[in-house]
């Protein structure tokens, strides 16, 4: 009897949400870091369709050399006709020591520069800024850390030095918020979504002019969702969608970005609201939150190191148009006439 009770209590503990945790050191601060990554990059970059990884090293800001495994990730930016240098996944093949900024990290996404031109550095910085803007609206968001990265080949020969940023692991986001990752099928019901978080997700994407997402469904044959990760129990009103991957947004306006054909819009900077009517009440409240956060949201552009004046001005003007569109609850009500469902 005692054994059965012990096993039952263990199962309950495994199924229950964990206590909230503080962010790992890498995502506990915002100042840019400088590091070096060495690997057989030419061979890795040539094999765009393969899934094999290459061994490498990452020299952290303290000068400690950490063994890593590097692999390619992504879809659009992985293609050779889009990006000379694709996004990377960084796996730590040994636990980073307690003295490293990367302590507690196991696997990280690294957003890279795509192409060598200075304009592509600006796109990276704008996408980084988008993550920081969402951080202002909800702790249920991906932490990011900007990095100036020296890339060298396996022999130590310098290749390039570019800006990039790391994205917090989803499991860490869930633990930080006292919950767990959602294991979802290919499609989930609207009613499964947390209304306030789903409303915030949709209105934030509208602010960015991003249409490349679905918080309910993934690609055919894949798990949910498209450019949304989920945390929380798979129960009615409990699933929290977290946005990521903003390079197709109007604010970033990358040269390869195109709007989804089914929306029948001609340019990624053209906004089309895609929130669910089921969440209209919460969207009005989220709009008020975003209006109050407007100075801080626009301030992210000034706080992003390396953004040039022209890029900041264009992005700020684009965001200001959104804030004009939601200036009052009556304006939001007009927007909600275009809700889905």
Proportion of beta-strand residues: 15-25%
Q: In angstroms, what is the radius of gyration?
A: 21 Å
Helix content: 25-40%
* Extended strand count: 9
Mean pLDDT: 92
> What's the end-to-end separation, in Å?
52 Å
Descriptive overview:
- With 341 residues, this protein is α+β, with helices and mostly antiparallel strands.
- Helix content is 32%, strand content 17%.
- The chain has nine helices and nine strands.
- The chain has helices at residues 2-15, 41-46, 118-137, 170-176, 195-208, 280-292, 294-303, 309-325, 329-336; strands at residues 33-39, 54-59, 65-72, 88-92, 107-111, 144-152, 158-167, 228-231, 240-243.
- The strands form two sheets. It has a seven-stranded mixed β-barrel with strand order 1-2-3-4-5-7-6. A two-stranded antiparallel ribbon has the order 8-9.
- β2 and β3 form a beta hairpin.
- The radius of gyration is 21 Å and the shape is globular.
- Residues 1-17 have low confidence and may be disordered.
